[in-house]
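OP here, attaching both records as promised.
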Amino acid sequence: MSRLTASTADTKGQIRQANEELILAAAERVFAGAGFSGATMAQISEESGLPKANLHYYFGNKEALYRAVLARILEDWLAPTHGITPEADPSQAIGAYIRSKMALSAARPHASKVWANELLHGATVVRQLLATELRATVRAKSAVIDQWIAEGKMAPVDSTHLFFTIWAATQTYADFDIQVSAVLGKPALTRNDHSRATTHVLALILRGCGLNPDPAP
């Protein structure tokens, strides 16, 4: 392959990646607001700023796009668990995971709402992902936490339910942001609100694990 051909291929690949990202981000927002049934490819096209033909070219149809959105959400949620390894410090590793989940709730609340809506409607699309990829990750990381407990590095906790607790505590600031804002007497959560919430969730969960909250990076 000539340099010119390779350069052209790289450029096309970058354009495709950028367009797919635009479409997925737009679809995430539309599905969060309208649900799968209420969302249309026309709405997603308008939200993304790309022609509807591009959506069909890259993803085929609405169901395929919805599946891609859900897969992307799960991938982004699981990525922060990579730091939970046997050689890591429990406070820093669990703390980093909590911070990442809180940051995602603040930056991409629509993602959490799409996921929650899918589960509330029976998880018909992601059930296989829940039973395979998610289950495998939780089992592997729970084993690491159990090892830390056995080594006396943290208090005895149910390692599997610890993940459920983290998910519930972090995603509530996305799924129920309207409720939290109302109780705080604000029209919407601010950056300071999310920072305060992160400090609280970190302290509550880490201390419950017999760990000291790690200093903010």
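Record two, same layout:
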Amino acid sequence: MVNDMDRKRVTVAMSGGVDSSVAAAVLMNDYIVSGATMHLFTDEDLKLDKNKSSCSDESIADAKAVAEKLNIEHTVFEFGSDFKSLVIEPFNKAYINGFTPNPCVLCNCGLKFDLLLEKAMAAGSDLIATGHYVQSGFDKKTGRWYIEKGADPKKDQSYVLYGLSQYQLSHTIFPLGNMTKSQVRQIAEEYGFVNAQKSESQDICFIPDGNYADFIENYTGRRFPDGDFIDKNGNKLGTHRGIIRYTTGQRRGLGIALGERAFVIDKDIVNNTVTLGKNEDLFSYEAVADNVNWVSIEKPQEPIEVCARVRYNMAEQPAILYPIEDDKIKVVFKEKQRAITLGQAVVCYSGNRLLCGGRCCKK
């Protein structure tokens, strides 16, 4: 047990879920712990009816119950306007412009590890902590903070944290990085947390029913017109129901019968067309990314060997990373990868260590 005079203060970002709750619990031996929950929206903000509730208020109540159980201070920060400008509006804009964004990356960089960190520091904390399954540290040889994959390969969340800055990493700890999900639930049971067996959300928090297109239309008040399904040669195959309803690699829900399986292989926002093709048409060797953030290394001057992934739930694949102009990289895989999608992230690793990541963009 560390003497109180020597203990640092840490604010744990408590979402109401079991992971952040256990993160708070395991830190209490070594830190003076407080909890904070970000209130990002109400169901009225999102124009949700009772059948599509986001459970935002329930999450705050669960976080508060855990804080009371641990006898720690708990604060709710109102970030509604920030969430709207930093997450929801960029999300809508990206979809409208033909990209498939990852809002968790936007939220992590703009809110949790920026505004929440700022609030926590202003209130006297030295650090913040989250329930992400990643590991971090400082490398004396490179003089840089780094992120490494979590010990539980099924739960590793390094993919969505590639955007963190050196400053943010220097003020953040990840106490669950060396744990498995089953260990976390066991600890929660031992503490008697109300959320010990709470199920994990599989959807974007502000779109609880998973229907992105309906959300965008309801939120923006825009309607996206029907257009043409075409083949690779530009021949019309049928009519689509609005271009925002389709993503690269999609097969189900196309509403068209061609006598064989068809997949979305491209979208043209200007001409309002969705190109359909075969599964093999989705495979390619290259991904180009912009808005690249270098984490454990500085931007190299020459190509380097990496392993990379272009989706959250995929194993890294061997590739060569080519640094190119401005904040861009080109990643050339040794084997073709399926459905490299504009707006998703390409994240590069060396072993378990995250090197960099960026947003897939047009070549």
